[in-house]
Design a protein that fits this description.
Length: about 200
């Protein structure tokens, strides 16, 4: 896969994964409550969950794009509409981090399955891959090597972003609990998400 496609994918993923959502909220809530000492199983599950969505999107959408062009376009525009909806929800979201429930016990297996559930059940992540990948990658030509390159790029981006969030949560708890800071983060994320929807619609 050419470098430019990987860089575009990485840049779009930075915007999407870096914006507060259910997974980030759960991660931040966990670190604020318990610190970073046992958060690795939760993080690992989040990364595996995103790799699953990426894999399903690459190979599933390749079949749709080749066989059902109209259905493919419908999926694309549903994705755009959902990104706009997410932008609106972010803009109007209440400024608190409650409700991101994961087990309070420190059992690594429970944390792992909680992280997997948060990621696999997150429609924001699913629709990001469904809406974005077809606009920057020729899915029909993605080989096994290309898929591995995408997964590797995804892993690097997510590790950098999620570890940054966890570190910030551990070192700046007062800031992350501030209603003003959360409102700014929500509205910045809403703006970037709406911009992503507009860019996808224009392609």
């Amino acid at each position: 896969m050419d470098l430019s496609s990987l860089l575009i994918f990485a840049g779009a993923l930075v915007v999407a994964a870096g914006s507060p959502g259910p997974s980030i909220a759960a991660l931040v809530a966990r670190v604020i409550a318990k610190g970073m000492r046992d958060v690795l199983p939760f993080l690992l599950a989040m990364w595996i969950g995103e790799a699953i969505w990426l894999t399903l999107a690459v190979f599933g959408l390749a079949f749709i794009a080749q066989t059902f062009h109209v259905a493919f376009l419908i999926v694309k525009w549903l994705g755009v509409a959902y990104l706009v909806y997410l932008a609106w929800k972010m803009w109007t979201a209440p400024v608190h981090t409650e409700g991101a429930s994961i087990p309070k016990a420190d059992a690594p297996l429970k944390l792992f399955f909680a992280g997997l559930a948060v990621t696999l059940g997150n429609p924001k992540i699913m629709m990001f891959y469904l809406a974005l990948l077809p606009t920057i990658i020729d899915l029909a030509s993605v080989s096994t090597i290309g898929w591995l390159e995408l997964v590797g790029t995804m892993a690097v981006v997510l590790i950098l972003i999620d570890v940054s969030w966890a570190t910030a949560a551990a070192q700046a708890r007062r800031l992350l609990k501030s209603a003003r800071a959360m409102r700014f983060a929500n509205r910045f994320s809403a703006t970037t998400m709406a911009g992503a929807a507009a860019a996808i619609a224009a392609r």
